[in-house]
TrEMBL record:
Record Pfam families: Fra10Ac1
Protein name according to UniProt: F10C1 protein
Gene from which this protein is expressed: Fra10ac1
UniProt-listed InterPro entries: Folate-sensitive_fs_Fra10Ac1, Histidine_acid_phosphatase
Superkingdom in the source lineage: Eukaryota
Organism from which the protein derives: Anthoscopus minutus
């Protein structure tokens, strides 16, 4: 190296020597830190295919993390949107038809029975089991009646549920569906004939109605009225009392004739004594 004016400089040689010493020292330290099984660093540019694979792997990792952070519905919407974006189509094509959807109430209405017997419980699927479970929760002492078509001699009956039992509907108030009268209730026993699942059946049911609704029930012919039985104690007391025998009209006449004859017989007896 030449200084300014063509003179040599010893300082430049010393600086280059110090740099080479530092470089060799750094290389030695790096060699000490390298583990035996560690691969050597590549100084050259990596292959294009390797770089593309690494890029795809990193992109897949980010996409996987994004999908995991979404819930099932959001993930479904994203897949549908991507399908329409790449393959075309309309969003209406992916909307499911709800024409055949059924709620629990629809299933119960289709499989409900007024009375279950052993034959009905023979072949049970989940729909019938659901209807039977609902049937077991009903109270079957008194019925609720629909008398709206009483002039056609057509009546509807159903069992009471828990809220109606608590409120007293059908027992302490009129059992008509559209009546809440509490006074003058009477109990009636009705032979209920109905068609259920194509089969005709009969059931003997009991209900309590007010006088007006009782007239509707008996509009065509009178049903059997259920009266409360007397207590055993009062019945025994009535049986112990002496019963008065009723005389017929002819017997009464005979008794009157005997009373008229008695004084004559008494006079004759007096004369005989004299």
């Amino acid at each position: 190296a030449h200084g300014h004016g063509g003179y040599d400089s010893d300082f430049s040689d010393e600086e280059s020597g110090e740099k080479s010493l530092q470089k060799t020292k750094r290389i030695q330290e790096d060699a000490l830190l390298v583990k035996p099984f560690q691969k050597a660093k590549q100084g050259s540019v990596v292959h294009r295919q390797f770089a593309a694979e690494e890029c795809d792997r990193e992109e897949a990792r980010k996409r996987r993390f994004h999908l995991i952070s979404m819930d099932a519905y959001e993930r479904h919407k994203k897949f549908v949107h991507d399908y329409i974006l790449y393959y075309g189509g309309k969003i209406e094509d992916f909307r499911r038809s709800g024409a055949n959807d059924k709620t629990d109430l629809d299933v119960i209405r289709e499989n409900h029975r007024f009375l279950w017997n052993e034959e009905d419980e023979a072949d049970m699927n989940w729909e019938k089991r659901l209807a039977k479970k609902y049937y077991d929760k009903l109270f079957k002492e008194y019925c609720i009646a629909d008398l709206s078509r009483y002039k056609e001699n057509k009546f509807g009956f159903r069992w009471r549920h828990e809220k109606e039992v608590i409120s007293g509907k059908g027992q302490f108030s009129c059992g008509n569906k559209h009546c809440d009268e509490n006074e003058g209730l009477k109990s009636w026993e009705v032979n209920f004939g109905y068609i259920e699942h194509g089969e005709k059946r009969n059931a003997l049911v009991k209900l309590r109605l007010c006088p007006e609704c009782s007239h509707k029930l008996n509009f065509h012919h009178r049903r059997k009225e259920v009266k409360a039985c007397k207590k055993r104690g009062t019945a025994e007391q009535n049986s112990k009392k002496p019963k008065k025998t009723k005389l017929s009209h002819s017997a009464k006449k005979k008794s009157k004739k005997k009373t008229h004859k008695d004084p004559v017989s008494s006079d004759s007896s007096d004369n005989s004594d004299e």
